[in-house]
Amino acid sequence: MLLVGNGKVITRDTCQPYLADGCVVIQENMIIEVGLTQKMRQQYPDAEFMDAKGRVIMPGMINTHMHLYSTFARGMSSKDAPPQNFVEILERLWWRIDKALTLEDIYYSAMVVLIDCIKNGTTTIFDHHASPGAVRQSLFEMARATQAAGIRSCLCYEVSDRDGKQIMEDGIQENIEFINYATSRQDDLTRGMFGLHASMTLSNETLAKCSKVNDESKIGFHVHVAEDAADQVDSVKKYGKRVVERLAEFGMVGPKSLAIHCVHVDEREMDILRVKGTNVVHNPESNMGNAVGCSPVLALMEKGITVGLGTDGYTSDMFESFKVANILHKHNQGNPSVAWGEIPTMVFENNPAISSQYFSHPIGKLAPGCYADVIIVDYDPPTALHENNVNGHILFGISGRAVVTTIINGKILMLERKLVDLDEVEICSKARELSSKLWSRL
């Protein structure tokens, strides 16, 4: 048994939102109680005690859309002319890198980012993977990495027609085999979804096949939706339907599915997403970096659609994504009064709600019956901290690198900024070796 106490506990539990001197009681991989430090120590005198030293104790952060495979693009120079639009970014960068990845690349590119997640307090990720040159076993390599790191994950492979029929078929099979494997596991650290790239790289025949083979598992789809206007143009031109209408026709939107981005959706598409109960995931930094526009997530939330927050591989720091989402919508609407409530809801309510559809017990909350995914943050508030202003303190006072201790599933992965089980130097050295070889292949 482990007590994590003597800290300012932000629980995200409406029954007990904040404790100025609180303690989280962990038994194996579950939280069994949260209370005042002195009381918990008296109640569990034989338990190991971790002293938070007056710092903030809070739930680990959840990233509902990630691309671990993008790691080896960091710092890479392109010999092509700079891309002028989103499709050129795909063609000149991402579709070249993903095609060149080997299974060994996949493992080490994932490990580097997973270390970053631990160091930034991100304890759960929903990843969307692509490696057309090494499709089969790719998700199993990624799972090997997430399990070695100790990160809670939900993985999928993005099926696409862009690399031919055989690779498309391999992508379908990889999803199905991995979903079956993940579902059979008992530890609840690894789960699977059915991945799709985007409407503009998927034929009707492929969508129909994916829908049919995924029907029995009742697992949701994880798909990019109208990230760029080009996706809508392609869908209307080829099929006479907008993207969400087309995906809905094949059953790709629904309660357990993730519609990523939704930058260029219209009112009717929003209504379809609402009626189908589809989750949307916003990725503000990626959308800004790709210059695709600002997703109308405030309007989506007004309609009652569950909108989560991800990073699209842009960063491992969900605190950073939280900050950027807040200012993006103020800037986009020219109104400093918007997004104060919606963005915290995405991060601290909707991301846990999305996760609950895939993991057996709640995460993103410090309360009895939740998984023990806990972080300690080195933050000494300069003003009063209480249950009504915790979001303001997080927004303006906390970044990922302020995380000093990360616990996932009851296991300590980082203690006082030192990784417990992982050799970061060795992993990064191997990643540099493999990434250099990948760059030379490109």
TrEMBL record:
<dbReference type="InterPro" id="IPR032466">
    <property type="entry name" value="Metal_Hydrolase"/>
</dbReference>
<keyword id="KW-0378">Hydrolase</keyword>
<dbReference type="InterPro" id="IPR050287">
    <property type="entry name" value="MTA/SAH_deaminase"/>
</dbReference>
<dbReference type="GO" id="GO:0050270">
    <property type="term" value="F:S-adenosylhomocysteine deaminase activity"/>
</dbReference>
<feature type="domain" description="Amidohydrolase-related">
    <location>
        <begin position="56"/>
        <end position="413"/>
    </location>
</feature>
<dbReference type="InterPro" id="IPR011059">
    <property type="entry name" value="Metal-dep_hydrolase_composite"/>
</dbReference>
<dbReference type="InterPro" id="IPR017700">
    <property type="entry name" value="Aminohydrolase_SsnA"/>
</dbReference>
<dbReference type="InterPro" id="IPR006680">
    <property type="entry name" value="Amidohydro-rel"/>
</dbReference>
<protein>
    <submittedName>
        <fullName>Selenium metabolism protein SsnA</fullName>
        <ecNumber>3.5.4.28</ecNumber>
    </submittedName>
</protein>
<dbReference type="Pfam" id="PF01979">
    <property type="entry name" value="Amidohydro_1"/>
</dbReference>
